[in-house]
Amino acid sequence: MRSQLPASPDDIDLMALGGAVRRAFGRLVVATLAVGVAALCVLALMTPKYASQTQIEILSKGLGNPFEPRRDSHTPELVSVRMDKEAIATHVRALMSNDLALKVAPDLHLASRPEFNSALIKRGPVGKLLHLLGLVGPREGQSDEDRVLTAYHEALRVYQVKDTRGIMIEFRSADPRLAADVANKLAELYRDDLSLRAVSESREARAKLEPQIKKLADEVAQAEAEVTRFRGQSNIFDGGRERAGLNEQQLGELTAELTRAATARAEAEARSREAREIVARGSAETLPDVQRSQLVPRLVEQRVRVERQIAELSASLLPAHPRMRQLNADLAGLNRQIKSEVEKIVQGLEREAKVATLREEGIRRRLDEAKARVVSSGADDVKLRALESLAKSKRAEFERLQMQLEAARTTSDALAVPVEVQIVSRARPSSEQASPKVAMVTLLAMTATLLLGLAFVVTRELFTMARQGVAPARIPATKPGMAGFSTERVPASVPRAMTIASIPPLAQHLIAKAKGRTGFRTVIVSHAGDGEASTVAVELVRQLARRKQQAILLEWSRDGVGLAPELGVPTTLGITDVLAGRASFEDVIQRMAGSQGHVIVAGSSGGAAGATDKDRVNMLLDALDDAYDHVVITGRQDGVRELLTTIEARADVGVAVGASPGAPGSLPGFASADLDVVHYVPAVHQGHEEADLLPASGSVS
Among 647, 592, 209, 626, which Cα is nearest to 409's? Predict the structure, then answer.
């Protein structure tokens, strides 16, 4: 018998839940239809409302707007000021103000309509009773104006169109024409109110600005006259294109002139020094200034002719010849003339250098005098700049106020301002009912009733299962082409058990139960010898592997004797070595010969110390659960019993091999095990070889 434990998700009987829903479905449909009819009746009694919408757009103010002072004289007046979300939200709040509502209500006579004045509603006996109880009708001491405002704001909805400067004005009323008139009237009043507000502000500004401007004009004139008087008194005048002071201009000009004079003096001294050096070397005729002379080149030509004649006559005449003496005398005279002319040119260069030096000294003295004048007039300059700054600030303020006055005069005289609110789309009377939405509300009420009823039925059924502790047992239904499973139902008092006569149906049964899960644990023990359980376990893992399942066989034995010789795998390392910490999973997991299934053998006999470590054993099995679809555990009865005790019977199916001499649904060697038990009895034990599935002991035929 299974122990009475709290219900778990595995104990939920979906077929029982489905049956409960089917049994209650008729009542749920009736309740749903009743709620739908009731909703229709209630909605039919409600007064229909019609909605109309007016769309307006907030225009950007330009810098040429008379109410916007010009910030930059170089900026075009048609540039728009950016409208942010906060500015649009301000207009939305202004449209919902009580001031506008109190202007709309008298124009459209809202106070005379029962829809907006609950005091005008004629009530029957029930209505009067509800009014006495304070549930409906006007409150005591509430004025007509308060009632109209309350109903008006409930019917009005103003919102910004997303990512635009557009604003939607929506109004709901039982009269479609009234809904459109209120929306249009509100937009027109708001637009006119902004325009009139600007005109009135202009008039007020004009009245305030005129005396200020008159007073400021006198102050500007006095300040500018004081600047002119002080300039004449201090001999500080402006000149030139840049309107700089004369002292500053003279100082700059002298500085530039001194630079030019110093450059000329240095150049003259360099030419004079170079000429004197060339003359000392005897190459005076190569000087540029000598070559530019008109006399020296002619003298040089004459000397060349005389030298040529001397050279021609020296071949036939002796030096003492009178002709030769004459030519030599002419040559000496020419050389003296050339030397004299060169000396004059060099002396001229020296005089130029001296004159440049004297000119530079004169300019430097004048520059020092100008500097002294600038320093001596420093205090006057400071005072003059202060007077000029005061006059300039007064002039700027005067011009700003004058501009505002002219803009205000233009606005107030013309009674017109730039449009800030533009009506894009006017409201029209609607023929479609806005509220209540009869079809939608009715469907929602019916859907909610059906869902709540289903939730109540399912919750009640689950609560009943939980109180019973276990769900009604049933055996999985036979699928086409899957022989070996019985379809009989058994009472809740009989443990779930079945008898299977061959390995393939057993493998298929485990796959069906483990559908959608990993780490499905199967424990196999034998009524007879433990070797028979090991043989069944090996073949079961091979059958699971053939069906594309990730399966592993875990041999649980504390003495180290088991399946290793039969499977032809080494016996040195196994599960006991992993528990003892001498090996890892990679060392002990091996593949079965001729199969895709894996196996972990018992291993050496010296690892029994870790077999009772609950945390290590559970951690090992949890790791195998994550890696494999099926974990098949087998071994001797005492070892498997100890394992189930350690892991608190955390297994899914128990397979009892051989004929069952004990109680049905129990494992051999276990007094009680909370497992689904399958008896594996080969057909030869039952007396017929072709039976794959036999009824479990104690089951109902």
Answer: 209
Non-local (6+) Cβ contacts of 31 within 8 A are: 449, 453
Q: Radius of gyration (Cα) for the chain, nearest Å? A: 60
Provide CATH code, domain 497-694: 3.40.50.300
Q: CB pairs under 8 A, 24+ apart, for 414-419?
A: 415/199, 416/195, 417/66, 417/67, 417/195, 417/198, 417/199, 417/202, 418/59, 418/61, 418/62, 418/65, 419/59, 419/191, 419/195
Q: What tokens were used for 4?
A: 């009475």
Domain range list for the chain: 1-46+436-472, 48-204+415-435, 257-376, 497-694
319: phi then psi, degrees, rounded to nearest 5:
-60, -25
CA distance linking residue 564 with residue 58, whole number of Å: 88
Tokens 């054993």 sit at which residue?
617
Q: Return the HEC string of 344-357.
A: HHHHHHHHHHHHHH
The SS3 of residue 700 is: coil
Residue 533 burial (CB count, 10 A): 26
Q: Does domain 48-204+415-435 have CATH number 3.30.1890?
A: yes
Mean pLDDT by 10 residues, the chain (701 residues): 43 71 88 92 85 88 46 45 74 91 91 83 62 62 84 92 90 92 92 77 70 82 80 62 61 83 84 74 68 71 79 81 82 77 76 84 83 67 78 86 72 55 89 84 92 90 58 34 33 53 86 85 76 84 90 78 60 78 83 84 61 79 88 84 82 79 59 71 51 36 24
